[in-house]
Amino acid sequence: MRDRAIIWSGLAMFLLFATFPFWHNLSAAVTSKGPNPVLPANARQCVAPVEYMKTSHMTLLLDWREQVVRQGRREFTAFNGQRYNMSLTSTCLEQCHSSGKAQFCDRCHDYAAASVPCWDCHVDFKSTLRSAK
Amino acid sequence: MSLTRQSFLRLSGLSFVAACARKLRSAVAPARWGMVVDVAQCLKQPNCTKCIAACNQAHNIPSIPDPRREVRWIWKDSFQHGFGIEDDYAQISAAPLMLLCNHCDNPPCVRVCPTQATWKREDGIVAMDWHRCIGCRYCMAACPYGSRSFNWMDPRPYIRTVNPEFPTRTKGVVEKCNLCSERLVAGQPPACVEACPEKALVFGNLADPHSAIRELLRTRRAVRRKPELGTRPQVFYIV
Amino acid sequence: MFMFEKALTGSRGYRLWILGLLLLITAGLACYLLQLRYGLAITGMSRDVSWGLYIAQFTFLVGVAASAVMVVLPYYLHHFQEFARITILGEFLAVASVTMCMLFIFVDMGQPARVFNVLLYPTPHSLMFWDMISLGGYLVLNAVIALVTLRTEREGVPPPGWIRPIILLSMPWAVSIHTVTAFLYCGLPGRPLWLTAILAPRFLASAFAAGPALLILLCMLVGRLTKSPPGRGALRKLGLIVTYAMVINVFFVLMELFTAFYSAIPEDEQPLRYLFTGLQGHRPLVPWMWISMALAAASLVLLIVPRWRQDDKLLAMACGMVFFSLWIDKGIGLIVAAFVPSPLGAVTAYAPSLPEVLISLGIWAIGAFILTLLYKIALSVRGDSLFAPDVALVEVAK
């Protein structure tokens, strides 16, 4: 019975630790509002159906990467027969998402707390060019 | 052995088909890219660095002031350092020499890479996959030409003007000359070759016996760096 | 599980020691986070000297790990009973060393998050791939052997039958880890210091000197701390192993020196000149190498004369010299000097930076920490007198 204080304080600490994400989000003023990415103004159709892109764009990009870097193939034929140059910067950003990755990619990634290393190397016209000296 | 008319016709038909097939195969056979550096031609402008500048611009190569952290794809060193020849009397020893990845036919860097992040493509280019490189630097220890650089830190702050058509690199990966594979698919020659005012860099298909580069290698005396190591460099130097 | 509860209690000195190690580990970890943030630019390595302290420590520690075979083999194959009590210490030393090896490789990676690419894209033509497999396998083998034998000892039951083949397998495996590590270096064109067929034998010789030397010192230390001196016979035998291995190692080194300097081929000579006399005015390793040589010579004198070798104090001194001498030789010189001069003839000086040294110290502290916990467990199982039954055993044998 002498251990009562230790046990209770231990339990309290555990509870605090287990519920940490909630407290953290509360203090960081994270809201339940959606990520709300900015969609391209003039392009209507992505390289794959929207539903597929929402769930699997990473798979598609990894596949592009494999094709371009390892196989040396650069042309992608989309589901609707449209042809694209497989390039994150020149196709995805330049052709459609011209508002830059911050307005599109980052919105969802930040919301989902996903940190992607793509932009460590690939150039985003809007942010990379400005940050480089 | 007597040759009947029938078997003669059959044989000549067969050999015709075989010749056609061979012709066809060589037409679709992958290229074997290589380069010749005409040293005398290069020396006409000893202070020229146009090829280096073109390469650096095309590939977002940072200009890092600390030589220990430097990244280089094509650079200048003395003939003596490039070839390891100690000739006290020859004037050429001290002459500047353009150095780059040799795109060896038997590349030690490819042999040692534990993830196949560097590999030899069918067209002979020793390529790199910066997505896969784990930064162990085993390839740097293996390369007998000092052609590989490591990103000791984030290179972006040291890139003067970013070329958006080509990625930069992240810290912790190795990089080197890619023989402008991104330009080759667009039908352009390597950036350094294009930039050279003296046409001292000749790029071409070594697999094609009628190419200009093969013609050059047939008629002029060319050497390669450290041939005794058996790496079979595909960059030749006409001295 | 695995008797780890035994490691949680201890004397004041024990707790202080653990606390000190944890402090060192924390400092190393902080520096590593810095490295993760800024890249390997915080180390002293460069484009020309692209491997440094980390890889050198890795190389040295693979040797220490492999040396466990020097106690395991006589005990299990030749039933050399005097090693009965220290075999487990050798195995635990191997566990701690291999863990350090892996950590040193890990902190050397530019992109540590991608380290599993080595297994994702297995590449049999890369020695790095084989090194990862052999090190991982060796760690598992030694951990299993040590913990299983210790447990059977605690419960007073005979060891399970399946453990013997595993023990037998661990012996060639120990040789393989250091051979593969030597192949890592000696298969590279254009690094003349490493391009020598004697590198693997030399690695093994220096390993079988440095490892048992450390083990002798550890046994003496544990014996003093627990006030139960280790068996004299065991230490003498280990001393003999150190002696032979060190003689062979020095012989190999002299052969390397002869070949390079008598042939007078510049590219073979230059790295050695850089080590022993300096090159183009750069002499950072020269004092280290001469200290290493002097220690090696002095230790040989102490070891070869039987009367001195059998004196505990002198043996301890000789072992300290052997260990430090080989640490300089392999843990500094051999890796760094292979990069000097560079393939383009440049001499680039290398000195580890402070964060680099702290990270390395942190990993050594992790090794010491693991070793302490494991020895503590072994000690507890044996009722706080690690070696006492050994003496009894020897008495019985007489």
Structure explained in plain terms:
The complex is a heterotrimer of chains A (133), B (239) and C (398). Helix content of chain A is 52%, strand content 5%. Chain A has helices at residues 4-18, 20-27, 50-71, 88-96, 105-111, 118-121, 128-131; strands at 75-77, 83-85. Chain A has a two-stranded antiparallel sheet. Chain A is elongated, with a radius of gyration of 22 Å. The model of chain A has no long low-confidence stretch (mean pLDDT 87). Chain B is an alpha+beta fold and 239 residues long. Chain B has a single domain, classed as Alpha-Beta Plaits (2-Layer Sandwich). Chain B is 29% helix and 15% strand. Chain B has helices at residues 5-28, 39-42, 50-58, 79-83, 108-112, 138-142, 181-184, 191-195, 212-219, and strands spanning 33-38, 74-78, 96-100, 118-120, 126-128, 149-150, 174-175, 201-205, 222-223, 235-238. The termini of chain B are far apart. The model of chain B has no long low-confidence stretch (mean pLDDT 91). Chain C has 398 residues and is mostly helical. Chain C has 15 helices and no strands. Chain C has helices at residues 12-38, 53-66, 69-78, 87-108, 117-120, 127-155, 163-186, 199-225, 232-263, 266-276, 286-304, 306-309, 312-337, 354-381, 388-397. In chain C, helix 7 crosses helix 8 and helix 8 (199-225) packs antiparallel against helix 9 (232-263). The longest helix of chain C is centred in the middle third of the chain and has 32 residues, at 232-263. Chains in contact: A-B, B-C.
